[in-house]
Task: structure prediction
Amino acid sequence: MSRNIIFVCDHLHGGGAERINIEIARKFLKNGFKVSFILLDGSKFGFEDLEKFDIYDLNIKFKGSLFREKGKKICPSKIEYIKKIEQDLHPELIIFSFAFAYWLKKYFSSSNKWLWVHSELTFFNARKRSSNIFSYLNEIRRIYIEKKCFYRIFNNEKILVVNTDLINFYCEYSNPKEIHFLPNGVNVENIDVVEIKRKEFAIIYVGRLSEEKRIDVAINAFIDSNIEGVMAIVGDGPLKNDLMNFVRNKGLEDKVLFLGWRNDPENFIKKSHMLVLTSRTEGYGLVVSEAICLGIPVVAYNTSSGVEYQLSVGELNKGLVKLNDYSDLVYKLKSVYADPYKITAQDKNRLSLENTFLRLIDITGID
Result:
């Protein structure tokens, strides 16, 4: 009789949260389990080699905010379909992952079900969410509703989070049955980069080009550090044109290169002397672990306990920058470039997917 694991996810279109779920699912396969994905939207896939998984498409389109019940009802036939899948598979573990999938938890009867939170889903601070007194009053009303909904979703549930800050947050605004820190990990077995004969980039940023990533800060720090060579920016997003204009207006087209979205960012990281991360918020920042596992030093703002966890051991701490300390950022870019810190095999193993998988097995009680 097969031993079954179920992942309940929004979709598998592509992205970091989806990828870590697939990587962990493959670990379960290698350990003799059968793995199924139940997707709200299974219309398209951004990953290859999914044929070993059983994939169920619910074709559910939830509307509105995650923390509003409006737009979250599903028809009775789909509820029965979900219950039949669980009854047929009799899973030893169910993992609900990234956002709207959490709304389906009430339709599953298994006692070993976990809500895996991959990022900072929300914050209840009206001042940060408003620009004037009128929007402030409106945000107070919205936050009141969202807090009640947040509590209903996470109350008395088993929760996995990617940094220890979130443990305090979820305990404050809900009443989890259990909550554990589960760091994301890098599948070092799949890191198969091309041979690099020389470094092409002094520094690299990899990720979404959006406001919270503060890529303009990274660009300015690179320029102010007077490091020779060029900076590469790998990724796409809503601020791409604004950032390109920002670079153009500074006359830095030859110093800052926009390489767009790439399917093999690891090869570009490997071609760089170091990676930079200057986000305002970052649940974990898996790209930090990816760079370390490739042997590339990272300089990053200490934006969360997830980032701190990755850079808190041994010489890796030389790349950890006090949040929003721009002078320290510039200093550490210069010092790490001039004298890269040592990355050990123990550092890489600690940040590996194998470590994540073993911790998940231990937490969830799967033998």
Remarks:
- The mean pLDDT is 91.
